[in-house]
Design goal:
globular, 44% helix, four-stranded antiparallel beta sheet, 221 residues, alpha+beta, 9 helices
């Protein structure tokens, strides 16, 4: 089982303190090694997940994000991200929640969900949540869900969305514009040999919610 290498996190720490091309150029081999390290770790995790989920797509190294920032429309002109993120996709790729693992020293987390649903997707999700409130309530009250995530997170409206009563029993969920779950890890935990298993358990705990949302996204009348 591949472990996250100490220099993967150390490299990202140094990028944060030296975010310029002059420093990065002679250090690029460390970036390549860090991305390959996470890619190999991710590939093994995906194989483990495929044993219990036949919708998982085998996607590394495409699943590991690149460190280069698009600065064209940003006032922040630092050229590099200070993290590496890895995505795990499920079929059909364009209409489902995604699993995500974020490698950033001091801010490592695993989870996922749907980050930017378009208006049509948001309506599908809200309509389903309004109809299946009791089912969703059971999902978020499962012991592993509470242990790892606590609750659903994401940006939300201050008021009830159009078409829904402020008194609806699911109003707290209906106000969300994103539907995310996150479990934080320390840098020390991320370097342990069992980190891959811990992330796997995290994703297993997220699956009932993701399946619930995916059902709504793929609903056809």
């Amino acid at each position: 089982m591949t472990a996250i290498a100490p220099d993967t996190l150390q490299f990202l720490r140094e990028v944060k303190d030296n975010n310029n091309r002059e420093w990065f150029a002679p250090q690029k081999h460390r970036y390549v090694a860090a991305r390959e390290n996470i890619g190999k770790w991710l590939a093994e995790l995906i194989e483990q997940m495929k044993l219990t989920d036949n919708r998982i797509l085998a996607n590394p190294p495409r699943g590991v994000g690149r460190i280069y920032r698009d600065m064209r429309f940003s006032p922040d002109k630092t050229p590099y991200r200070t993290f590496l993120g890895a995505m795990i996709f499920r079929a059909p790729e364009d209409r489902n929640c995604e699993f995500y693992i974020h490698f950033e020293p001091g801010n490592i987390f695993a989870g996922g969900g749907i980050y930017m649903p378009d208006p049509a997707q948001l309506k599908l999700i809200r309509d389903d949540m309004a109809y299946s409130t009791k089912e969703l309530d059971k999902i978020v009250k499962k012991p592993d869900f509470k242990k790892y995530f606590g609750e659903i997170t994401g940006d939300k409206l201050q008021r009830a969305p159009k078409g829904f009563s402020p008194d609806h029993p699911a109003i707290e969920w209906l106000r969300y514009k994103q539907f995310l779950v996150l479990r934080s890890f320390t840098d020390k935990q991320a370097l342990q040999k069992n980190f891959q298993d811990e992330v796997y358990k995290t994703f297993l705990a997220a699956r009932p919610l993701f399946d619930h949302i995916d059902r709504a996204l793929n609903f056809k009348e």
